[in-house]
Amino acid sequence: MEPDSKGIFRERKNRFLAEVEISKTDSVKKVHVRDPGRLREILYDGNEVLVKKAEKEGRKTDWDLLAGKVKENWILVNSGYHRKLMEKILENHEVSPFGDIKSYQGEKQLRESRIDFLLIKDEKKIWVEVKGCTLAESKRALFPDAPTERGTRHVEELTQVIKKEEVSGAVIFLVFRPDAECFEPYEKRDPEFTSSLKRGIKQGLEVHPIKLSYDGEKIYHREKIPLCESFDPDGC
Description:
It is built from 3 helices and 15 strands. By secondary structure, the chain is of the alpha+beta class. Helix 2 packs parallel to helix 3. The chain is globular.
């Protein structure tokens, strides 16, 4: 996952478009932003970023935003890699929270939503949704950093299928902050998502925060981190 150039972030025009001063071309270019979160602690004027040349021709933008600097660390901000990263985790039973599975399929329809993965383990179905986490405060990884109706709907769909069928459900949070020591939903940013996640946990929804790091060339699996002690799933 090597970048094609470094750059200096200049301005975010909207959720999916930004302007970056790209070192390789020595000019300001429009760049596609895959992560719809606010990312204010990463995407600000003057911050160092990594960009990758777009593979598809005929796009409105020739570059994709890959990562941004937070202190001395590169933080991946491209959600287009989440599925590939999760596939690598699933295929390694030593690091996967599900251990040794029989098979998996991607992008499966569940009621009104498309869920990232459907796993088969011991002849039992496990529905798995994957989210990326780029925000951390006081060593706590926090998600979401902006209200997410889609994320809330996914959690509610998983909770419903757990209640009505003999299946399991899980949400994986890929935590791209090496300074994070625990995870919790960011209630201040999205109380609806937090409430949905609490209800899901009470019904048996699994939550697995997995910390990864990116050195500007490769992504490394670090560890699974716990839920923060300050997060009470039984609270209102």
